[in-house]
Amino acid sequence: GAVVSQHPSRVICKSGTSVKIECRSLDFQATTMFWYRQFPKQSLMLMATSNEGSKATYEQGVEKDKFLINHASLTLSTLTVTSAHPEDSSFYICSARDLAGGNTDTQYFGPGTRLTVL
Amino acid sequence: GENVEQHPSTLSVQEGDSAVIKCTYSDSASNYFPWYKQELGKRPQLIIDIRSNVGEKKDQRIAVTLNKTAKHFSLHITETQPEDSAVYFCAALNKEYGNKLVFGAGTILRVKS
After folding, report:
1. Is the pLDDT reported for residue B46 higher than 70?
2. Chain B residues within 8 A of A5 when measuring between CB atoms
3. CB–CB of B89 and A106 under 8 A?
4. Please, which pLDDT band fits residue A2 given cuts at 50, 70 and 90?
5. How many A×B Cβ pairs under 8 Å?
6. Looking at the partner chain, which of B43, B100, B105 has a beta carbon nearest the beta carbon of A43?
């Protein structure tokens, strides 16, 4: 149980284009999902908290107009990197909590999306 | 907000030896402390966690200890195996801050056979 998927696993795009990343909870409903960014050899940095049916809350320093988050259903959150630039190249990982499960604090991570902006 | 420090940044041990990774946190209101293992290019996998009402938890070769007074917690891996080689992250969760996890910087564990 508690499986989180992400799509795509890898994406290469040209500078200035937009990229959408999907995060799905496959066997549970997630009212809250989290989006992280991880640069090579670094830790996971929380970008934003995605809330089903309401606006996402962004961490300090993360541009909400650049990283658009939509959480339209209890099993899907999307992150759109708009007007991507090479410095946005990173490993983007989502996570979700299974509030109906035995351990409601545990965050289950998706497999990540490797974004490369040329 | 919460700040989590993790040491050491790299750790090399001989197969069969024990490995210990230590973390400290700053906010005494944090009450949930998971440990994740991440292999290169893969997702973080939860390996063990502990809540603030417990001092120690063990699962086979892995154990975690928590000292609430000192605000530090440690991961102990016994009888290390080459497949234990990975990056390990500690984290702290504070419900007062939207159930957000704050991660340590990570420890690269290398188990030499």
Report:
1. yes
2. none
3. no
4. confident
5. 50
6. B105
Query: Any idea which residue has 């300090």 for tokens?
Result: A60
pLDDT tens digit string along A53-103? 889 999 999 999 999 999 989 999 999 999 999 999 999 999 998 877 677
Q: Which tops the pLDDT comparison, B100 or B99?
A: B100
CB-CB neighbors (< 8 A) of A109 in chain B:
36, 43-45
Q: Which of A57, A103, A111 sits opposite B98 (nearest CB)?
A: A57
pLDDT number for residue A39: 95
